[in-house]
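FW: tagging you since you asked about this chain on Friday. Here's the raw sequence from the shared folder, copied in full. Didn't touch anything.
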Amino acid sequence: GDDFHLNELALLASALEAFIHGEVVGQLSEAYRALRIEKQSKLSEKDAVELMETYMTAFLTGYKMSHLAPDHASSFRENIKGSYTYWIHYEKLIREVQQEVAPGLQEFTFSDLLTILEAVSERMGRRLDETNCHDIEGRLIQLEEANGTGRVRLRDFYESYVNNGDWQFSERIDYLRQLGVLDESEPSVPRVIVPNYLNMQANCLNVSSFFDLCCNDPCEDLLDHLESKIRAPHASTDEIIALVSKLPSAHLSGDRVLPSSLVKMLGEVAEHHNGMVPLHGRLFAQWMHFAYPRDCA
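HL: got it, structure written out here
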């Protein structure tokens, strides 16, 4: 049949894991080459940390180690450490994983470093969300036009770049428009939509040929919760209102009364579908944005 069976999915996952492993091995081998270290060498902790940091600076910036000349490897590492805003968080992650995976180890082989760096890679997504993404979101919320709206006036967005050194907020208006980040329902006062900005591809780290690391989408967790409770592709407005009123997010409490305008909007969605609301339709996704303006794009 045409169904994608679980065993085929498992084979795909296994193949992808093997490809990613091979990529890590290749990049680590190139880091050894760039630092003129033999792969058979046993390294002191100091040399091992320098090698892992060289690997990690290339990993974070998407730079191919094979393009790095031996004479420039150390200066490349130090330049990235000095210029990449969030480097300190990933430096700390390397230390944490090293102490967990190889506690007390004094000499490090290629295999040891590979084990550490693969464990680091597995935790990178969460660290990205806790650092880069959380910081960008916090800066946007400080600029929010009104508390809880999930919108920043474009003028304030650009002024923060000029006045506060918010280096992230410098994208051209046509670029933001193309990516669906702007609310131009009031053309004279365009606004940046906070969750849409966070979910931009530009905020992802291009760390691999096989995947990028991007900010977590909290709306997916909210929808997962609704799906687990409803257990059907459609639901009544009353059921959705009851669930959403009690469903908290990082920015909203789990005990609130939804505004009448929001209840009315959901009713209008149901009117288009014989009195029931499809959970996976465009209109419900739009409704979720108004119900969770900081969480749902």
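FW: Strands lie at 43-44, 107-108, 151-153, 182-183, 191-193, 234-235, 277-278.
HL: agreed, and The chain has a mean pLDDT of 92.
FW: great, closing this out.
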